[in-house]
């Protein structure tokens, strides 16, 4: 009861789907669909009369062709944030292979480098922008792969406030852009959202065991907030629509936010920073330099390592597919750090020593993805085993370090 004794009205239904505005909008869509149908008829008629050669085509096929032209744009303009980094640059290579793609990279070069993209600089379908994602960006694009964020623990702990700003404000800015231009956005989240996991292997349903105030939290919790923002934008501004309605919505200035979330597990391959600090790059660089492999204690902690080409394949499938995720993308092959060191020693330098060193706080004890969802929903699973991937990385590191393999 209100204070004046009258019965208070229930608050309006908060669901944007059921608000009065929703029904007004629906009416607007219906009218638009009708007028768009009229437009199509006009186009079909004028095309048929202007080009006698087209008269062999049925009005239906012309209608569909027009739809395809308008709704499923032949060319795709794709933004890759963090595209000058390790995974980002491999993703750019793969996207550029498709001649219908135009690729724009936005990167602040904190851990990435122009060198990773040198083969594309000057290419007519490629643009590189020095940009920090904590600031807004306005570019007309159809898809956004949002990778910008330092990934190596050494780098993300170096300036933790900046790391959390990159994850939170960076993702907010990219979501704002996605909403404004009607682009689909994919976030590269991480297995670190599972923290020091109590469930093994990790399924997407597991909510994680994360220290909110530890030295890794800027990254783990930053990515968790980034995932939350993705889903909030999706729920608040995005309804899964069929392409026709989506097109009409975007024509009306109505926001749509289509999201995809990949939870990436440890990925390795050529172009990793040599002094990046992550375990695979450390061990390979140490083996090549004849320095002892530094296994952090206790050495029995596990990780699952995915080769970068498999990762890129998984990310593209997720972007192109129909599922929002989150979906684990990683290789379920699980190794202790001592086993990894043994493998590197055997494959790269049998004379190298293995030594144990102190670990850092909150290091997860185990990690292995359950990839059932990726298999079922994306038809994806990794192809390259660790022992097959390590030599590709060795070759790249030897070239960059200028140390040829001993005869
Ligand atoms: N490699 C892995 O094992 C792994 C695992 C889980 C998740 N991920 C995620 O995948 C993405 C790419 O990782 P990576 O291994 O290629 O790392 P990386 O450090 O090589 O690449 C990150 C890129 O983002 C750029 N960047 C960082 N902060 C930025 C900012 N504020 N504005 C613009 N650009 C910025 C860097 O300069 C770099 O080019 C990251 O989001 C990371 O969290 C990676
Ligand atoms: O897969 C993930 O989700 C995360 O994986 C890594 O995080 P982490 O597994 O801690 O990466 P590394 O620094 O490579 O450490 C892996 C393990 O190797 C150990 N390690 C590291 C370096 C080293 O020289 N020796 C060593 O034994 C660490 O103690 C740790 O147990 C990435 O760096 C994160 O960006 C990513 O999000």
Automatic annotation (TrEMBL):
A single Gene Ontology biological process assigned to it is: D-xylose metabolic process
Name the domain of life. Eukaryota
Q: Which cofactor does it need?
A: NAD(+)
Q: Does the keyword Cell wall biogenesis/degradation apply?
A: no
> What UniProt keywords apply to this chain's record, in alphabetical order?
Cytoplasm, Decarboxylase, Lyase, NAD
Q: What is its EC number?
A: 4.1.1.35
Pathway given in the UniProt record? Nucleotide-sugar biosynthesis; UDP-alpha-D-xylose biosynthesis; UDP-alpha-D-xylose from UDP-alpha-D-glucuronate: step 1/1
NAD(P)-binding domain segment(s):
79-390
GO annotations of cellular component type: cytoplasm
Output the Pfam families linked to this UniProt entry.
GDP_Man_Dehyd
Which reactions does this protein catalyse? UDP-alpha-D-glucuronate + H(+) = UDP-alpha-D-xylose + CO2
Name this protein carries in UniProt:
UDP-glucuronate decarboxylase
Species of origin: Camellia sinensis var. sinensis (China tea)
Q: What is the lineage of its organism?
A: Eukaryota, Viridiplantae, Streptophyta, Embryophyta, Tracheophyta
